Amino acid sequence: MLQLSAHLLNKSVLSLRTGTPIATITGPVINPNNLKIEGFYCEDRFDKKELILLYQDIRDMLPQGYVVNDHDVLVEATELVRLKDVLDLNFMLLGKPVVTVSGEKVGKVSDYAAETETMFIQKIYVAQSLLKSFTGGSLSIDRTQINEITPKRIVINDLMKGSPAAATAPVM
Fold it and tell me: Less packed terminus of the chain by CB within 10 Å, N or C?
């Protein structure tokens, strides 16, 4: 099921063992190479440290928050050797400029939707400039339309202009 970023963030992390909240989700850990949410930054409820909850440690997702076995699944960033490169990038998707392959500015990422089973980001939503928003509104970009992700911007395939053209079948 697709969930918008607002439904993934600012939730409690709930312990099955104690039955109480143990942390609060503050942000995603996004791998820009494959647009996967590898985990979440959390604020520990006990000592207010920033810890990381890996996606594979989540037992269930409830409207109240994420259910985990115990507080032991929350780890410090220095302990995650395999994710060191991704964590060092500190990739933030929201607010990232979006341009087409031909260099046309489209807007900035205002939201995204992730598949909760796999945590792959399936769609990004782009807020256009004020002038373009009067004529076209916001855009929904599927992950298949993304051509390249750099630290400074997201490059997508060129947008179709005017009326939709009829699709032609390839000749075999």
Answer: C
Which tens digit of pLDDT belongs to each residue from 123-143? 999 998 665 555 566 789 999
Interval 81-119: pLDDT, tens: 999 999 999 999 999 999 999 999 999 999 999 999 999
What kind and span of H or E run contains 161?
A: none
Host H or E run for residue 5: helix 5-8
- pTM for the model stands at 0.83
92's CB contacts (< 8 A; 6+ apart) are 30
Query: Residue 120 has what DSSP assignment?
Result: B
List of domains in the chain: 2-89 (2.30.30.240), 97-156 (2.30.30.240)
